[in-house]
């Protein structure tokens, strides 16, 4: 998803570390994080250009820890022995040893290329995500509701009303199951190529986005090659009446354009993201986040298209229905107790989907990826951006595709008048 980039993460870890565990706080004052959640999300997903490679085979973490502890102990003895043998007083030698250890700790934290800090950040963000998950379990789960893709054009007003009230719409059959399966194979092949390029440092442009909670998760930018282009076109053509206010939309007979005015993206929205979200077994739950901050109008609409059946164990996307509003954002970013109540009470929708079905959601909606306990889950996704929306950080799109495609250009329709 969006690779937000401007802020430094360095403030985040101390802030998160200072946060007591949720369970130790009284319900009314409990806080998930002293940093605003949007900042947590943004900070954690930043770092476009950082490619997460699969963990390589190697000694287990326990063995590594034992090795480090053993080495450190040996160093302490050797250092102390060397000093005292050289005639240094025991107390002075002990103090010098402490100084050396503190310097080594600081060196590890600040001069190891950021690895220690990144690990601490990841674990702090994960703690927040897990605590949020526990809270959301208390919120009501909405019964499944979806619209067949063909009904988007014929019942645009109803689809728009549903999207407007909840911020998310489930659409069945956006891709044929067979086309979803073909695209999945293509995406998986592309993943292997992109990983090899990343390992060899031969990628001509950035291939991966800085997705939240990166362990076992990839945000893989997709080239507009034939399998991707044909899937994108098929999906966009069916969603066009909802995405665009004029031109393509007005052609659908009997559609009530006015009722969609608050949601649609306006004339000829820009292709802003084209990517695949791949989560493998072991991918942790993401923190709750919106993709953009609150704006009075929808800035982005994203479609997550399932390239396989997404079952609960695969960690489907969760959506907090109705949280794309100013009031919900104020609560989410406000007092800790407000956020807690919001998470406890906002009805949830879970993105369990048949192959080829999709969720279409407003970028202001609070959502996240679930914990994957089972195996690979592949979502094809694309985002359209309203021309009128405020400046946003770059989305998950190959640089070579940026600013080049719009809904109309993809559908072969005449471009918007300048
Ligand atoms: O993995 C998912 O289902 C959602 C991912 C997401 O929301 C994100 O990466 O921002």
Distance between the termini: 29 Å
What is the global morphology? Answer: elongated
The total number of structural domains is 2
Low-confidence stretches: 3-59, 246-263
Q: Determine Rg (CA atoms, Å).
A: 24 Å
Write a brief caption for the model.
This protein has 418 residues and is of the alpha+beta class. It has helices spanning 12-17, 37-45, 61-85, 90-110, 115-136, 150-154, 156-166, 177-200, 226-243, 326-333, 336-345, 407-410; strands spanning 147-148, 168-172, 217-221, 270-279, 300-306, 317-320, 348-350, 358-362, 367-369, 377-385. The protein has a seven-stranded mixed sheet with strand order 1-2-8-5-10-4-3. The chain has a three-stranded antiparallel sheet with strand order 7-6-9, with no helix packed on it.
Can you put this structure into words, describing what you see?
Strands 1-2-8-5-10-4-3 form a seven-stranded mixed sheet. Strands 7-6-9 form a three-stranded antiparallel sheet, with no helix packed on it. Helices cover 39% and strands 13% of the residues. The chain is α+β, with helices and mostly antiparallel strands. The chain has helices spanning 12-17, 37-45, 61-85, 90-110, 115-136, 150-154, 156-166, 177-200, 226-243, 326-333, 336-345, 407-410; strands at 147-148, 168-172, 217-221, 270-279, 300-306, 317-320, 348-350, 358-362, 367-369, 377-385. It has twelve helices and ten strands. The protein has two domains: 9-15 and 33-45 and 56-112, no CATH class; 142-410, q2cbj1_9rhob like domain (Jelly Rolls), CATH 2.60.120. The protein is elongated. Pfam families: PhyH (PF05721). Residues 1-18 form the signal peptide. This is Fe2OG dioxygenase domain-containing protein. It comes from Emiliania huxleyi (strain CCMP1516). Keywords: Membrane, Signal, Transmembrane, Transmembrane helix.
């Amino acid at each position: 998803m969006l690779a937000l980039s401007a802020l430094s993460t360095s403030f985040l870890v101390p802030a998160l570390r200072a946060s007591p565990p949720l369970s130790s706080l009284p319900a009314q004052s409990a806080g998930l994080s002293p940093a605003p959640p949007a900042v947590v999300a943004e900070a954690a997903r930043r770092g476009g250009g950082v490619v997460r490679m699969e963990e390589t085979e190697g000694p287990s973490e326990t063995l590594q820890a034992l090795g480090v502890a053993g080495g450190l102990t040996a160093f302490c003895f050797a250092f102390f022995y060397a000093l005292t043998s050289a005639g240094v007083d025991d107390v002075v030698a002990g103090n010098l040893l402490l100084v050396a250890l503190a310097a080594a700790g600081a060196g590890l934290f600040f001069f190891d290329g950021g690895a220690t800090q990144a690990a601490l950040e990841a674990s702090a963000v994960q703690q927040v995500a897990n605590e949020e998950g526990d809270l959301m379990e208390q919120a009501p789960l909405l019964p499944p509701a979806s619209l067949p893709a063909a009904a988007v054009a014929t019942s645009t007003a109803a689809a728009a009303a549903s999207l407007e009230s909840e911020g998310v719409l489930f659409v069945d059959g956006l891709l044929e199951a067979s086309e979803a399966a073909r695209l999945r194979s293509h995406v998986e092949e592309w993943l292997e190529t992109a990983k090899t390029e990343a390992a060899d440092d031969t990628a001509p442009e950035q291939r991966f986005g800085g997705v939240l909670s990166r362990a076992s998760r990839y945000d893989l930018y997709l080239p507009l090659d034939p399998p991707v282009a044909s899937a994108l076109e098929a999906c966009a053509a069916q969603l066009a009446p909802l995405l665009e206010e004029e031109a393509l939309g007005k052609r659908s007979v009997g559609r009530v354009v006015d009722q969609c005015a608050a949601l649609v993206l306006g004339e000829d929205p820009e292709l802003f993201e084209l990517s695949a979200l791949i989560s493998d077994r072991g991918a942790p739950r993401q923190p709750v986040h919106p993709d953009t901050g609150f704006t009075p109008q929808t800035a982005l609409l994203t479609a997550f298209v399932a390239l396989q059946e997404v079952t609960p164990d695969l960690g489907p996307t969760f959506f907090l229905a109705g949280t794309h509003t100013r009031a919900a954002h104020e609560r989410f970013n406000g007092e800790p107790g407000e956020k807690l109540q919001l998470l406890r009470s906002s009805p949830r929708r879970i993105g369990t989907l048949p192959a080829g079905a999709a969720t279409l959601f407003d970028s202001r909606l609070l959502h996240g990826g679930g914990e994957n306990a089972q195996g690979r889950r592949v979502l094809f996704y694309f985002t359209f951006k309203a021309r009128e929306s405020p400046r946003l950080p770059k989305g998950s799109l190959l640089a070579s595709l940026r600013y080049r495609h719009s809904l109309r250009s993809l559908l072969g329709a005449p471009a918007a008048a300048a």
